[in-house]
Design goal:
Blueprint lengths: L6 E11 L3 E9 L10 E7 L2 E9 L4 E8 L11 E4 L1 E4 L7 H13 L5 E9 L8 E8 L8 E2 L8 E7 H6 L8 H16 L4
Parallel strand pairs: 4-9
Antiparallel strand pairs: 1-2, 2-3, 4-5, 4-7, 5-6, 5-11, 8-9, 10-11
Length: 198
Amino acid sequence: MDEEYRYQPLEEEPVCQGFLKIHRHRLRHASFRGGWCPEIVRERIEGLAAVSVLLYDPAEDAVVLVEQFRVGLMGQVEPPWTLETVSGFCDKTRETPEAVARREVAEETGCVLRALYPIGAFFVSPGISVERIHLFVGEVDSGQAGGIHGLPEEGEEIRVVVMPRAQALAECFGRINSTSALIALQWLELARRDGRLA
């Protein structure tokens, strides 16, 4: 490894094993000035991998989103419900991101994917988490979408929302304000312009 990018884990301990798994890491890393920076201690959210899918109906020029309560929005925006892409966690050892996408789309919206377009994978917040999201656009028949879905045993109550693509773009940084949805809507616009969608 390049000397400039060396790091040395010194100690790791679990500090929370609830809904989130959080470990405390003591480490040091190389300095851009040479040598080592002082030791630091950081908590990190562990073990998360997710899949997120923006659903698009080209015949209706509409997107299918899901609306649900989000604890992270409490005290930040009112009401703390948000419009998002279909999303779910995956166990990288058991399912491919594509398989998770198909499962979550059926589970959260009642739709069947006709096509799945990979956008890429990105880290959500590398300062505090290992979480990486595999992002897709999925082609569906929005006429299949509707109702309230989710797994009660996971505390989910998810309402399906179908809206014109142009309206979804106008809602960006408003009601639609999560990373996956913003990136996927921008990708969809570019893909439509340059013919990447079948």
